Structures are given as structure tokens and as C-alpha cells.
Amino acid sequence: MLVAVSGGKDSLALWDVLVALGYQADGLYIKLGIDGGVRYSDQSLEKIEAFIAARPGARLTVVDVPQELGAPIPLAAQLTRRGQGRPCSICGMSRRHIMNRVAHDGGYDVLATGHNLDDEAATLMGNTLSWQVGYLARQHPVLPASDDGLVRKVKPFFRFYERETAAYALVCGIDYVYDECPYAVGATSIYYKGLLNQLEADRPGAKLQFVLSFLRAKEEEGAFAQAASEVTLKRCPKCGQPTANDGECTFCRTWDRVRERLASQTHPQTQMEAR
Amino acid sequence: MHVKGAPSPAKASAREAPFALTEPAARVTIFLMTVSITFRDQQYEVRPGMTVRDAIRKCGLQPEAVLPVRDGKLITEDVVLKEGDRIKLVAVISGG
Q1: In chain B, which residues have their Cβ closer than 8 Å to the Cβ of A12?
Q2: Spatial separation of the C-alpha atoms in residues A89 and A94, rounded to whole Å
Q3: What angle do CA A239, A243, A245 make, to 5 degrees?
Q4: pLDDT in tens, A91-101
């Protein structure tokens, strides 16, 4: 099993639980090149290294985005129109691609992520408010592997409240990155979490009820089943990863554009002469 | 409740008590203790005697979004705060 770890409370708590339960769980850290004035990526990796130092046998794979792809995520966001300059869009897309690729190429049966109940409820709220039927069709704590090259994905903490995973980390003495990503300030998902917490304060259990009743509607009444069956994946001719696009996948297209624009900034003279 | 940066009622209350006793030799200094609450770079002060949950609300924060820690240990929301308690609130919301 491969566990995606960010250095935050959820993923480190998940890794701790999986190891304690006897799973052969290896970690994957994607170094995004985010500084934000707090050495965010470096600090995250330091926390993960301290975590594995206390757990002999835990293995970690690190994918360094600036080194491997050519630019840190914030710069890549600036160089493309994706996400209107905010790094969250290119960050999420890149992380999903890298996680699937590492899990697939490493021969792992399953990829586990530390998504908790609050994450799931906030995502569900966002997708419901804008009726993103395709996303609603794919939102589930267990996504099976596909012949197209998608690895099986699981979210073992999806029933746990965010404060429960934070409490677990504190009680177990797991040192994690307390700060949220500097680019997440003002993010819509955090706004939705605040709204859901207000709801939860008035109606305890509301978040769990929201997510579980959604899953029941899918499983028992077939909600969004049609949208789920409409997606046909193809192989990206460049990287071989599954994609809904005709031709190259979004990851390859985006990062090619980033590198092109980076090269034109680094060597503007050469680019002008070439024209 | 007091937010750091504004004039501090706690500092004022910690000064010598403004009443005189009949015997100058028996004069005492009374410190009115408060509970200090820290959340990220903000500091709040509340009166002792209330529960952690009420104190968090008094600070204008959501109890669901934080975990209270006293002396490095996690405490529950029904704990009644005592004079001099120093509470650190750990944010639990993450993501983006």
C-alpha cells in the first residue's frame, strides 16, 4: 500500500494507524516547492523525516516537483492560466497525476489518502452547490482500480472528523505541520468547512449525516450512476497515464506549457530570433 | 475578553488594587488573574470559571475548528478554566 503524506495531521495519523495495524504502508511525499515565507515544503518534509526516523522500516518516496518538472507549483501557476494564478488547481491536478503514476509504476495495490469527514463534506458541499454531476459521481471513499491504469484509491479516515484526527495526532505525539498551506488562505473549501462547522455546532452529527446519506443515495438508489458510466478514459500518448482528453493528458499539456514559458523567459533573445 | 493590540484590561487589572486599607502596614497587593488563550498569533483573555467551550465562543472562534491544549496536553471542552490557565488553541482546519 502507498500512503500519500503531506506532513499534515491527517496523512501522518493515517500512516501511523496503518503501520500500527500491520500494513506494509510506504509513504509518498510530493515536494511542491512552496515556501510562502514559512519554508512550507521544507518544513513538511522535515516533519515526515522525523516521523519515519521514529518508525524503522517505514519507507518514503519523495517526488521533487521543481526538480522533476522544471518549476515549483506557485511559479507554474503564474506561467499558466490554469486556476487564474492561484496554485491550488495546478497543484491538485499534478498531485493526483503523480500519486497515480508512482502507485502504478511501483506496483502498489492501493493508494491511501488522509481525507477526513470534513474534507469529504466540504467537497460534497462545493460540488452540490454547483451541481458538478461528474465530480459527484466520482466522489467515494473507495475508487476501484481500472484497466485504464487508475490504481485503487481509498480514504480510510472518511468517517473521522477533522478534529478527531488532529486529536489523535496530538495524543500520540505526532509532530505535524500546524500551518495550512500558505496558498490555501481564502480557499473555497476552507470557507465551506467553516459553514459546515456552524451547522455542526447547531446540529451535532450533521456533517456525518450529509456525507453518509449522499453515499447511501449513490449505492442504494443509483444517484449519479449515469454520469459515472459516461466517462471513457484513454491513454495519454506521452506519459501513458489515463485521461479523459483526446490526445495528451492535462498534466502533460500544462507542464509542457510551463516549461515553454519558462524557457522563453530565460532566453527571450533566442525565442525572438527563432520567430 | 481582550484581543492583543488593543488596550489591555488584563494589564490594568494586574496593577496594584486601587483601594486603601486602614492600616498602611497591612496593605496588600491583589492580582486579578485571568485565563490566557492563544490562537495562532492572536491572544485573548477571559475570566476563569467558564468552560473551555464557552471561552472559545467568547473569543469569537468555532469550538469545532480548534483543539484546546493546556500544559502541552489536550483537554476536553467541558473543563472549567482556572485562574492563571494558559490555553493554546490548535487549528484543526486544513486543506485548500
Answers
A1: none
A2: 9
A3: 110
A4: 999 999 999 99
User: Cβ contact (<8 Å) for B96 and A9?
Assistant: no
Using CB atoms, pick whichever of B64, B67, B94 lies closest to residue A180.
B94
Residue A259 inside a domain? The answer is no
Query: DSSP labels for chain A?
Result: -EEE--SSHHHHHHHHHHHHTT---EEEEEE----TTTTHHHHHHHHHHHHHHTSTT--EEEEEHHHHHSS-HHHHHHHSSGGGG-THHHHHHHHHHHHHHHHHHTT-SEEE----HHHHHHHHHHHHHTT-HHHHHH--SEE---TTSPPEEE-TTTTS-HHHHHHHHHHTT-----SPPGGGTT-HHHHHHHHHHHHHHHSTTHHHHHHHHHHHHHHHH-TTHHHHHH---EE-TTT--EESSSSS-HHHHHHHHHHHHHHHHH-HHHHHHH-
When mean pLDDT is compared across A47-51, A145-149, A170-174, A270-274, the lowest value belongs to A270-274
Question: CA of A40: how far to CAs of A8, A36, A130, in Å?
Answer: 11, 6, 31
Nearest of A261, A233, A211 to residue A77 by alpha carbon: A261
Cα angle for residues A129, A135, A139 (degrees, 5° grid): 105
CB-closest option in A162, A184, A198 to B96: A184
ipTM of the complex: 0.81
CA-based nearest residue in chain B for residue A202? B64
pLDDT confidence band for B96 (50 / 70 / 90): low
The answer to whether the Cα torsion of A187, A192, A193, A194 is positive or negative is positive
Of B64, B69, B95, the CB nearest to A190: B95
Is A222 inside a domain boundary? yes
What CATH number corresponds to the domain at position A110?
A: 3.40.50.620
**B62 neighbors A197 (Cβ within 8 angstroms):** yes
Domain carrying residue A195: 2-229
Fold of B9-91: Ubiquitin-like (UB roll) (3.10.20)
